[in-house]
UniProtKB/TrEMBL annotation:
It comes from Paraburkholderia megapolitana. Residues 1-58 form the HTH lysR-type domain. Signal peptide: none annotated. The lineage of its organism: Bacteria, Pseudomonadati, Pseudomonadota, Betaproteobacteria, Burkholderiales. Belongs to the LysR transcriptional regulatory family. Keywords: Activator, DNA-binding, Transcription, Transcription regulation. The keyword Glycoprotein does not apply. GO terms for biological process: regulation of DNA-templated transcription initiation. This is Transcriptional regulator, LysR family. Pfam families: HTH_1, LysR_substrate. GO terms for molecular function: DNA binding; DNA-binding transcription factor activity. InterPro entries: LysR_HTH_N (IPR000847), LysR_subst-bd (IPR005119), WH-like_DNA-bd_sf (IPR036388), WH_DNA-bd_sf (IPR036390). The keyword Lipid biosynthesis does not apply.
Length: 315
């Protein structure tokens, strides 16, 4: 098996047929078909179901596609790293952010990267923290902002800050000046689904205290949750920075929920088994600097940390 086999395989997957893939790859169709058959023989498995309508991946083919894309991406990164070892940072870097973090941090990070790293193609992805961790471990993204500093196999983490979650309500809701976890029982709540990390955190904190939450709706969209709270359809729990604009505009109220159970650690993570690059190292530095400046300037109400969960060694 060589890199050419992998590129041909991915090309057929993306084109959906041998004829279209042959045109895109500038390879004769019979030769391309022979290369795919040789790859299947080497792997001792069928990667495609063939029909008049094209080529459809088998279950084994879908598994192999994920690995093939990671290998090809690594080859491209290696080529870029060698070319740019003593030059300006360039190439592609993929950064994953949880939605609540992305809401505040994506634009500032992008602005600084565009200014300082004009030759770096930055790809920004928003998803659940747990999903981002899986993608980071699989090599699908290069850097991730995650919640929680627990030790994970293959990951290195730097603790950035502690976020105190807050009770969020519409401006017309009567909210006490200080808020305890027990008081959540008194309000109708709109929370994300049970697979969401924030929902699990809230329920885990309430369970030992036998607090019964009145969840009137489950919504995973951050924007929709905030809009529903503005309209008085229910209250929610979010980090204060996720509603900073709405609070400033007088649309929402945010009161920190007292107690260590509602404190969430934000970390920067990389996969220590993946290759590094000058571009990746510089993006990491910018992410850390931008978030530190946001906390210091009050744009992100949180406690900045200098303690390392695990030291990140920049390549």
């Amino acid at each position: 098996m060589d890199i050419r086999h992998l590129r041909y395989f991915v090309g057929v997957c993306e084109a959906g047929s041998l004829s279209r893939a042959a045109d895109r790859l500038h390879v004769a169709q019979p030769s391309l078909g022979q290369q795919i058959s040789a790859l299947e023989t080497e792997l001792d498995t069928q990667l495609f179901e063939r029909s008049r309508r094209g080529m459809v991946l088998t279950n084994e083919g879908r598994v192999f596609l994920d690995h093939a894309r990671v290998v090809l991406a690594d080859v491209d990164r290696a080529r870029e790293a060698v070319r740019n070892a003593n030059a300006v940072p360039m190439g592609a870097v993929c950064l994953g952010l949880p939605t609540t973090v992305g809401l505040m941090a994506t634009i500032p990070i992008l602005a600084v990267c565009r200014s300082e790293l004009p030759n770096v193609h930055l790809k920004l992805i928003e998803a659940y923290s747990g999903t981002l961790q899986e993608w980071l471990q699989a090599g699908r993204i290069d850097i991730a902002i995650l919640y929680g500093d627990a030790v994970e196999v293959g990951l290195k983490k730097r603790a950035l800050l502690d976020d105190q979650l807050a009770f969020i309500a519409g401006n017309g809701t009567d909210v006490p000046a200080t808020f305890t976890l027990e008081q959540l029982e008194n309000f109708p709540l709109i929370l994300p689904g049970v697979e969401h990390g924030l929902r699990r955190m809230v329920e885990s904190a309430c369970a030992p205290l036998h607090i019964k939450l009145n969840v009137v709706a489950e919504i995973d969209s951050l924007g929709t949750v905030k809009r529903a709270a503005e309209l008085g359809l229910g209250c929610t729990v979010l980090p204060p920075m996720a509603v900073a604009a709405e609070v400033a505009a007088g649309k929402l109220k945010a009161v920190p929920i007292e107690g260590p159970q509602m404190r969430r650690r934000v970390v920067l993570a990389i996969n220590e088994t993946r290759p590094g690059s000058l571009a990746k190292s510089r993006v990491i530095e910018i992410v850390e600097r931008v978030i530190a400046d946001m906390v210091a300037g009050g744009a992100w109400p949180a406690e900045q940390l200098g303690v390392m969960a695990q030291q990140i060694v920049h390549p």
